[in-house]
Design brief:
homodimer; alpha/beta; 42% helix; Rossmann fold; globular; N-(1-d-carboxylethyl)-l-norvaline Dehydrogenase, domain 2; 20% strand; 11 helices; 2 domains
């Protein structure tokens, strides 16, 4: 086995493409699995317009079509990155990588938002190390294979599981950290990655669902309206309470109100309107990620006996309007 | 003054037209104020297709245009019935009858849904008796001046105000009761009309707002979906709690759960899909009655220190989607 890292990226929208480009820059052989943008990427790779890294063309070493799911691969991948949407209510997300995992040494790296996204992978691949990540990359695929990227490129991560078998060793974390640094990706080994996931969820759950249900408002408009801003704050408070109960510790050391305030301030001071991916999904009549962003937290809250009237309301309305569209 | 009753009906949709027809049948002189259906009604009256009363044409004694608001009237009306929508957030609803009230003896009869609908009238006409009603009439204006009516025709009512001045006497109630009976309208003098209003509101608040926010589902579909049905039940529970606190007594003698169950059963066993007026208003880009149906109850709940997370959520989303449409 050559020392060159062999990497697969499944789901190459804005996030997957930027990471793929960085990993190739760091010397890895990078394969990508594409769905809607397959033809474009196969033809001419990704055009990446990045404020952080400059304008580049990223031509993957191998482009695989997601539709050709018989394409079992005999290649050994050091890392399989999953940056598809997480839709366990539609299909088992772990099946997307089944053709590509032929060794327990392949490290599965999950870049998805939400709570409980790791479960389908840990069930299907119980012997593989799974790295659960919180992604901070402000990139979008503005048209198939054309990626607009800002200045953020950061991964927070740690193992999914408290199990500290030898395989789930610090060596894996150190190697991954070194590789990310080589790729000029900011690397943060989080002492409590689930806490980070809940912190990100507080924003995603409130912003995504309320944007869709309010008729398609951007974050700034929602924050400027007293009623929707109050609703966003109340929803975030609910998520903080659930996360606290599920993890048996507060999500932040300081004041929850200050955290919520910082989310709201951030969106109020942004120069441009920012829309959540859930709204794009709704507008383009694609399934929304309401399972991992709202329903899984509600289910965990019930087990922890925490009341979630707002999350339940938003969920009921979201699946109802989705049902009339899909 | 002749003994013939002189009646004005302001707002002649399905409800106003059916009552007008009945009052003329009972021997009254009936004038109507029309908005969108003025030309049609002026030309040929109302065609009323009623399962209860048979098919009739109701030609009002006088048809007044709502747009001609300079038309101050020197006629004395015994009763002014108000069956317009209640939109205090858009305009003062009491102004619609200002040209027609020239005596403190005119009895104002409010047929509108919601809480606090009487306030604008009691402020503008502090000396007139105001009868607050809960209307049970299943009629719809299927096209301008064409009314479809089922089998219900009932009014529950009593004075708005606890003030028992001589003018607000039992004589007024008795006369009104006798007149309704003559008109073959079922007449129920309610010992606690505000309680009846809250009971009706429990359904209206839940059904109207959730129908709109769920993408336009009818009552039966909402009740058949476990998530939206749970949301409707929870919303009704909230309204019951607010009404209880505001009136300082429970809305029903028995179990709240049984009352909620009866609302849900009723809608589940209906042969046809039934849609709330709030949905029609939303679909036709007209203002919705969210002020009197949701916001006023929220404000009263705050004063009574009752928590209303669901009503607040529904309200925030409703005014947000309305803002993008009107």
């Amino acid at each position: 086995m050559s020392s060159q890292k062999n990497i697969l990226i499944v789901g190459t929208g804005g996030v997957g493409a930027v990471f793929g480009s960085r990993f190739q820059y760091a010397g890895a052989r990078v394969s990508v699995v594409c769905r809607s943008n397959f033809n474009k990427v196969k033809e001419s790779g990704f055009t990446i317009r990045s404020l952080k890294f400059g304008n580049t063309v990223f031509v993957p070493d191998c482009v695989i079509s997601a539709k050709n799911d018989q394409a079992f691969d005999s290649v050994f991948y050091d890392y399989v990155f999953v940056s598809t949407k997480s839709l366990p209510n539609v299909e088992n997300p772990a099946l997307a990588i089944l053709p590509f995992i032929n060794s327990p040494d392949t490290i599965i790296v999950l870049l998805q938002n939400g709570i409980g996204v790791e479960d389908p992978f840990s069930i299907l691949f119980p012997n593989n190390p799974i790295l659960s990540c919180v992604v901070r990359v402000n990139s979008t695929q503005i048209e198939p294979s054309i990626i607009q990227h800002g200045t953020l490129c950061c991964l927070l991560y740690n193992f999914y599981t408290s199990l500290k078998s030898p395989k789930f060793s610090d060596t894996i974390l150190k190697e991954f950290d070194a590789f990310l640094k080589l790729a000029k990706v900011e690397s943060i080994i989080s002492p409590n990655i689930q806490k980070e996931r809940w912190l990100k969820l507080a924003w995603n759950a409130a912003f995504g669902s309320i944007s869709v249900l309010s008729g398609g408002k951007d974050g700034k408009s929602l924050a400027e309206d007293i009623y929707t801003c109050t609703l966003m704050r109340d929803t975030m408070r609910e998520v903080f309470a659930v996360g606290h109960a599920v993890l048996s510790e507060p999500l932040v050391d300081g004041s929850i109100e200050e955290s919520i305030e910082s989310y709201v301030s951030l969106v109020l001071t942004r120069p441009n309107a920012v829309y959540p991916s859930m709204l794009y999904d709704y507008q383009f009549k694609r399934p929304m990620e309401h399972q991992v962003i709202i329903k899984n937290p509600i289910d965990l809250a019930e087990k922890a006996k925490v009341s979630t009237p707002l999350l339940k309301t938003l969920y009921a309305l979201l699946i109802s309007i989705e049902g009339g569209r899909l």
